[in-house]
Amino acid sequence: MPDPTGGAGSADAAAPQEPPVPARDAATVMLLRDTPSGIEVFLQRRVTAMKFAAGMTVFPGGGVDERDADASIAWAGPSAARWAQWFGCDERLARALVCAAVRETFEESGVLLAGHGPDNIVGDTAGYAGARAALVGREFSLAEFLADAGLTLRGDLLRPWANWVTPEGEKRRYDTRFFAAALPAGQDADGETTEASESGWRTPADAMADGEAGRSMLMPPTWAMLSDLAVCRDVTEVLATHRAPVPKVMPTLRFDGESVLVEL
């Protein structure tokens, strides 16, 4: 699925006179861990064949599937009503956003924010490799996977962080909610996804340095999230930061000759 980091100023920029296309709802997760060097965040470089944000370095995430709103999913943590208040949307969409965040994180990194009950988190997820592939192939929904595996979605492991909307003028637009989550004990993130050419853990400062040096490409929302994380001492501080209700940010595009400038 396309990455939904709310990018701006890409090669997808449409002519300014075209009416804006609707923004698709999406979710992305800043997956975090503590190291002796400080906080690290899991990042992926998207393959150049992608139609949106090709070659960009991003967090795991993607568009909402209509099946993500399934109310039958066993759920632990803040209610859909509470998430709706935090993200300024209706309850159905709020539920879908949380479920999409869990599903996309699992599909793209192998990290599963779920457990056998509200007080449990799964350890090694290798036993769910077949289900992961089936989810990627849309053979079944997140609700079907969790029910078959006897798992409860752990929405309490997620924190609301930001909401960016792709600027009007882009041909592909996303209304993306950003979440933060700690890497569960016993799990690890991998790069086993066809959507990324490489994946790995980086400190926010190192990731931004790569962007400044031209070794990677970071869209404005990704840069903003990394800047937020860079001032936090550890994952506990990130998860304790209350960012709700979450304001919606939509940059604008200014055309200057052949250049497209992003303004916040």
Describe the structure.
Mean pLDDT is 88; it is low at 1-15. This protein has helices at 80-87, 91-109, 129-136, 142-149, 204-213, 220-230, 235-240; strands at 24-35, 38-46, 57-58, 61-63, 75-76, 114-115, 152-154, 158-165, 174-182, 196-202, 248-249, 252-256, 259-263. It is built from 7 helices and 13 strands. Helix 5 (204-213) crosses helix 6. A hairpin with an 8-residue loop joins strand 8 (158-165) and strand 9. By secondary structure, the protein is an alpha+beta fold. The strands form 3 sheets. Strands 1, 2, 3, 4, 8, 9, 10 and 11 form an 8-stranded mixed β-sheet that branches. A 3-stranded mixed β-sheet has the order 5-7-6, with no helix packed on it. It comes from Prauserella alba. Residues 1-21 are annotated as: Disordered. Keywords: Hydrolase, Magnesium, Manganese, Metal-binding.
